[in-house]
Structures are given as structure tokens and as C-alpha cells.
From TrEMBL:
Family assignment from sequence similarity: Belongs to the UPF0382 family.
Cell location: Membrane
Nucleus in keyword set: no
Alphabetical UniProt keywords: Membrane, Transmembrane, Transmembrane helix
Name this polypeptide is given: DUF423 domain-containing protein
Bilayer-spanning residue ranges: 6-27, 47-63, 69-88, 100-123
InterPro entries, per database record: DUF423
Length: 124
């Protein structure tokens, strides 16, 4: 499990840098200020959780179910939250907003919150 968490952390980190640069340069000309802020929110949350997963990958043994569950909630939550924001922003800029992604963002946020709560419980 440690290797999975560390590999996903580094993937999220690398993609966060790529998406951040893409947003700051290429999308700046295409996106409205509001869309750019939303896109940046996705990048920030992705980077925050990439760093958290990196630390957890080195610090936790993942022998307890609660540790594994926390990690999976953070991994899936980051993917659903950030990538749904990217999809919403990109589709909105093209005039064809993918509305089905709207409910996915809060679901990702809920998984992130659950991951943090489970992580806190595992420390008790």
C-alpha cells in the first residue's frame, strides 16, 4: 500500500505542476477570471493532497484498515474533486458545460473530508 500511495502522490504532484502551468499560461487567454479561479482551486487541492499523501506514504504502515481507508478516501476524493473541476472549467470555456460533473465535485470533497476524519481517528 505504501508504494501505491507514494506513486499516486508523485503522479498528483507532477500533474499539479503541469496543470498549474497550463492554467497560468495557455488557459489564461481562454478562461474568464472566474473559470481561472475555479481551475486554480482544483490545482491547489490536488497539490495539497499530493503532499499529504507523500507524507502518509512515508509515515504510515497501512496495517490498519482505518489507515488504508483514509488513504483511499484522499486518493479518490482528490481525483473526483480536482478532475471534475478541470472538466467543468474546460467544457464551460468551450460553451458545452458537462453538467454531469457538477455533483461529482462535492462527492470528491466529501471523500476528502472523510479521509481527514479517518486519519484523525487513526491517530487517537
Amino acid at each position: 500500500m505504501e508504494k501505491i500511495v507514494l506513486n499516486i502522490a508523485t503522479l498528483y504532484g507532477a500533474l499539479g505542476i503541469i496543470f498549474g502551468a497550463f492554467g497560468a499560461h495557455a488557459l489564461k487567454k481562454v478562461f474568464s477570471e472566474e473559470l481561472l479561479k475555479s481551475f486554480e482551486t482544483g490545482v491547489k487541492y490536488q497539490m495539497y493532497h499530493a503532499l499529504v499523501l507523500l507524507v502518509l506514504g512515508f509515515q504510515l504502515s497501512f496495517t490498519e484498515t482505518i489507515e488504508k481507508s483514509a488513504a483511499w478516501c484522499l486518493i479518490l476524493g482528490t481525483f473526483l474533486f480536482s478532475f471534475s473541476i478541470y472538466g467543468l472549467c474546460l467544457s464551460s470555456a468551450k460553451g458545452k458545460k458537462l453538467r454531469f460533473l457538477g455533483p461529482i465535485t462535492p462527492l470528491g470533497g466529501l471523500l476528502l473530508v472523510m479521509g481527514w476524519i479517518l486519519l484523525g481517528i487513526s491517530f487517537l
